[in-house]
Amino acid sequence: MDRNPSPPSCAAEDGEAAGDAVGSTVYSKHWLFSVLTKLIEVISPEKSDSNATSEEVQMELDEELENDICKVWDMSMDEDVALFLQEFNAPDIFMGVFAKSKCPRLTEICVGILGNMACFQDICMSISKDETLGQMLLQHLCDSDSPTLLETSRLLLTCLSQAEVANIWVERIRENPSVYDCVCFIMSSSTNVELLVKVGEVVDKLFDLDEELMLNWVKNGSYQSVGQSTDDSPEERPDFKIVPCVLEAAKQVRADNPEGLDVYMHILQLLTTVDEGIQAIVQTPDGGKETWTLLYGLICHELCQPDDPPIIIQEQKSVLASILSVLSSMFASQIQQEYVMLRKNIPLIGSLIRILQNMEGCEKRSFDNSKKPQPEETEKSGTAEEDFHLKILKDICCELLSNMLQELTKEDILEGLNQGHLNEQKCSCAFQNLLPLYFTSVESFLEALREADQMLADSLEKCFPSLRLQT
Questions:
Q1: Span 12-23, mean pLDDT?
Q2: Which UniProt key words apply to this protein (predicted)?
């Protein structure tokens, strides 16, 4: 059976009146009424079979009813249908399902329908203002059923993305400490990539909307009873810390979902915008080594590789900017850490220069395109946005590169030259991008380079007269 079968129309064989149509659609009001009525009957106590326990009945969903409710799920993407469901008090019916049903599939479908309905502003406002419904939905973040978790996360993201109601949900989540544990539990233990990406998007949106909530989650980490439990043995989650959970989720999505990796790297970047977030990254038991190792591996071995075309920088600019921003913050605060020692990170310097080289290729391509007939206004806007994001990436890349170059010793440079991560072409590219803003860093590097390779230093000075004039 299809997950979302094709919905029925009101075109009846018996010449049913056009007034049965929902809004301007061809969907039948009568049919929708009948499905919602069946749903009410399912959760009514009198429906329980005398030959089976209530729980057994609720755990199973009649195939025909499941098929019909899936059709409603599909139909609810239409605004007229969503408004009709709202008028028929469908959210109240779904609350009855959440309260009484133990059927995961039924819960998933009902949350999914609400998620579709919430795409429309007025309905989203109504759903968001219903405190009882809001609390029930947050409780589903502690559900053990992955499809239900996915639909709940999708619904939350939809609401958080609408400015008119976002603060309602931020405040509601801030007042529910268990949400933190539930989200961390998912990020640290789930192998469902689709779910991890959606939960990551929720966390990313929350942190972007509310710094106070982000700070609370950074400081959080207490045992709390979460999810379904019995009176005798409450289910306890581990003492979660936000950074290890984000790292674990990033490792799960890195190979299969580039967009998901981008989301989790942006979460880390948001954490570095506050001192407490940076400390949460670098004051883990390993001093931040796991974070550095993951990000180092992404930059040096997976993203923007030597055999990639320069245009790859356009596709990866967002995730690269996030990663380099975190590495830059860590390098500045953990310069004495063994894992940050430059001898071990020479390949990272080579990767930073390669990113700048690819950006130069993109800038040349953009310049060549500017000579062609002017595009439509929307295309102009898209190009301007791309250039803006590339500039952000360039600024972050140059800052980290300058900080690393000025710390290099003669021995570090010799190692870089031997490994091929430094040569005249690469140094020239670095200088071209760093000067004049980072003159002090370039000058410091050049002094160490003279000790390692005087001929190369002289050649670079000839190419950059400003360095020769001030030495």
A1: 59
A2: Nucleus
Q: Of 346, 339, 317, 322, whose CA–CA distance to 407 is shortest?
A: 346
pTM of structure: 0.88
Written as one letter, the residue type at 291 is: T
**% of the chain beyond a pLDDT of 70:** 83
- Amino acid at position 359, single letter: M
Q: What is the mean pLDDT of residues 379-408?
A: 85
Helix orientation angle between 439-452 and 424-434, rounded to the nearest 10 degrees:
160
**pLDDT recorded at residue 140:** 96
CA–CA dist 400, 323 (Å, integer): 11
Three-state DSSP at 13 gives coil
Give the residue from 416, 410, 406 showing the smallest Cα distance to 351. 416
In the predicted model, what is the mean pLDDT of the chain?
87
Return the closest-CA partner of residue 161 out of 113, 131, 215, 202. 202
Residue 470 phi/psi, 5° resolution? -110, 15
DSSP letter, residue 28: B
- In one-letter notation, the amino acid at residue 122 is D
pLDDT at 345 over 50: yes
User: Token pair of 245, please?
Assistant: 């959970």
Cβ-contact 21, 10 below 8 angstroms: yes
State pLDDT tens for residues 166-210.
Answer: 999 999 999 999 999 999 999 999 999 999 999 999 999 999 999
Identify the H or E element spanning 22. Answer: none
C-alpha–C-alpha distance, residues 173 and 213, integer Å: 9
Q: Which secondary-structure segment (H or E) carries 85?
A: helix 79-87
Tokens of 251: 């490792």
pLDDT of residue 222: 37
Between CA 81 and CA 84 the distance in angstroms is: 5
DSSP assigned state of 142: G
Average pLDDT over residues 66-73: 95
Residues 6 or more apart from 186 whose CB is under 8 A from it?
141, 149, 195, 196, 199
